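re: ur question from yesterday

yeah so i grabbed the chain u mentioned. its 190 aa long if i counted rite. heres the sequnce exactly as i have it in my notes:
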Amino acid sequence: MKVFVSGGCKNGKSFYAQRLAKDAAHIDGGISLPLYYIATMRPVDSEDDARIARHIDERDGWGFATVEQYERIEEILLKCDCGGSFLLDSLTALLAEEMFRPDGRVDEQAAVRIVQGLTEILDSVSNIVIVSDYIYSDAAVFDPLTELYRKSLAMIDRVAAEMCDVVLEVAYAGVTVHKGKDVFRHEACV
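ran it thru and got these structure tokens back, copy pasting raw so excuse formatting
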């Protein structure tokens, strides 16, 4: 199953997504699929380091192989068994990595490339959970660069939501199913 998980920052969606990917890796009859955590955030400060350490601790012992892929997301298809279960965390960080280059340049076409790579992945794998942050509820108008980032993420999120079987929103530890209610059953859904 292909699942898109969105919600506010730091609200438990990554932990929930980890559980979904792990559950998808275990097939009836005791067969376990390879389990991949696709890390898209390149740490730049101690806050990032702490966040990454927390995520690593959360999935300790769960069987995830971590694949760091900060750009050209489709390259995970060359590094992983497409028959496995994937957790891509997150589109938000991936866009930041692709759009805001280490040399200071801004790549305004990053979202187009990410959509192409994501489409390739979604066409190639059967089990994937994709995480993204919901950053669209602010009424404020931001500077043009921030607005470009928000619009770019919205475009990527729309493609992911359209291509996935299930679309979930995590908020305050509750989970709402926006798409796929007929096929998705998980104990934490409300």
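noticed a couple things. The CA atoms of residues 90 and 131 lie 5 Å apart. also Helices lie at 13-25, 46-58, 76-79, 91-99, 110-124, 144-163.
anyway ttyl
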